[in-house]
Amino acid sequence: MGIMTASFIMAVEDEPGTTYGRLLRSMRARICDEQGNRRLHGRLGSFVRWMIMPGSMQEPQMCSSVAFDIYQKPFLR
Q1: What is the distance between the alpha carbons of residues 34 and 59, in angstroms, rounded to a whole number?
Q2: Distance (Å, whole) CA 17 – CA 1
Q3: pLDDT digits (tens, 9 = 90+) for 32-74
Q4: Which of 34, 64, 67, 68 has the fewest Cβ atoms within 10 Å of its own Cβ atom?
Q5: Cα 65–56–36 angle (5° rounding)?
Q6: Mean of the pLDDT values across residues 6-22?
Q7: Rounded distance, CA 4 to CA 61, Å?
Q8: What is the pLDDT of residue 31?
Q9: CA 67/CA 64 separation, integer angstroms
Q10: Residue 27: which of 63, 52, 3, 55 has the closest Cα?
């Protein structure tokens, strides 16, 4: 299971009846925390961060053909 799937499952299980906006925010926080825990320290970590572009973190996103307030509309599973 990948980090995106795991963060989605945990966010839905932790907050039943959440909104789309809170779901995305929770997923982003979990991904940021998880990828932060995997960081290398010291010279090797500095080299790896220098080699990899800083914007390479996964970012959960959503699209819809209908406009709506993501912080008001409940996420139904």
Answers
A1: 13
A2: 24
A3: 777 655 555 566 666 665 566 555 567 788 899 999 999 999 9
A4: 67
A5: 110
A6: 90
A7: 11
A8: 82
A9: 7
A10: 3
User: What's the token pair of residue 27?
Assistant: 């997923």
34, two tokens = 């998880």
Beta strands in the chain (DSSP E): none
Note whether 26 and 13 are within 8 A (CB).
Answer: no
Question: At which residue do the structure tokens 């299980």 appear?
Answer: 13
Q: Where are the domains of the chain?
A: 1-77
**In the block, which residue shows the tokens 């039943």?**
16
Enumerate residues 6+ apart whose C-beta is below 8 A from 48: 40
pLDDT tens, residue by residue, 1-13: 688 888 999 999 9
Q: Give the position of tokens 């799937």.
A: 5
